Amino acid sequence: MNTGIIRKSWFRTMIFILPLITVILFGLNGGWVRMNAWTSGAAIGCAEVALLLFLLRTVGREPDYASPVPFRIASGIITLMYGIIVLLSVILFGYIFEISGLTYLTMHLIIFAGFAVILILMELIGKHAGSEERKQYDDRNAQKKQVARISSIRSQIQAITEIPNQNDLLQELRKLEETICYSEPTINTALFEVMNLLEQHIALLEDQVKLIQTVTMPKKLELIAEVPPLVRKIHEIVNERNKQSLHLKSKSL
How many Å apart are CA 137 and CA 158, to the nearest integer? Predict the structure, then answer.
């Protein structure tokens, strides 16, 4: 943990110091008066900052770096390409084919602006994809928990020998488990109401089964009779959720 903090602190220090040193060295090399030398130093310094920021957010594992791996790789390639373009521009147009100071400065400003726009777009797309990925992961975990709860209910019902047509009820619960398990992850907030209704009915079924285990005849038979309709209701809600989810997905295409 301390090593990670030291690494991040070192990167942050280098982000300020290294570009400053680069600019001063280029200015010194140009005799303090050549505009192209200062422009070259500033351009190389910007490329260094871009590279160090990328390394800080990947190697340093900044917690807000939410983009999936393919987008991080793309951002790294874009940053590397920017650095290569800046370096080639400095060599070719700053020294070999020296052009006027204003033209040289304008060229580097255009290169930097293009890099910034592309990188920002990539970051926004990546963060959106990461957000959707996390929502899908969270919903899949919620579905797994629902399946585990139904499986637990099925095990408890299997232990209650007084249930008439027990095998039919157990079969219904197995089908319900499979329906939830193989449903597509639901990440649309428009389905919050039906998801909340599903959670309420599963909790109601859990309470019903627990209550059955605590009472005696004939109250037990009355409570048992309420279980199959409740299971079918949950199945209906799951099917309705899947139907609405499919409809929303088709509308977004």
Answer: 32
CB 76 within 8 A of CB 50: no
Model-wide pTM > 0.85: no
pLDDT, block means (10 residues), the chain with 253 residues: 60 86 90 89 94 82 63 91 96 89 95 95 88 81 89 89 83 90 72 86 91 83 88 91 80 62
CB 44 within 8 A of CB 87: yes
Cis check for the bond before 228: say yes or no (omega within 30 of 0): no
Query: From the CB of residue 193, how many other CB atoms can be counted at a distance below 10 Å?
Result: 11
CB 244 within 8 A of CB 194: yes
Q: Up-side HSE of residue 130: CA atoms within 13 Å toward CB?
A: 16
- Do residues 22 and 44 touch, judged by C-beta distance below 8 A? yes
* Element of type H or E holding 173: helix 166-181
Q: Is the dihedral of CA 168, 182, 153, 198 positive or negative?
A: negative
DSSP state of 122: H
Residues 150 and 173 sit within 8 Å (Cβ to Cβ): yes
Q: Which residue pairs, CB below 8 angstroms and at least 24 apart, start in 208-212?
A: 209/153, 209/156, 209/157, 209/160, 210/156, 212/160
- Contact criterion met (CB below 8 Å) for 80 and 119: no
> Which class for 18: exposed (0-12), middle (13-18), buried (19 or more C-beta within 10 A)?
middle
Place of tokens 């994809």: 129
Distance CA 4, CA 204 (A): 47
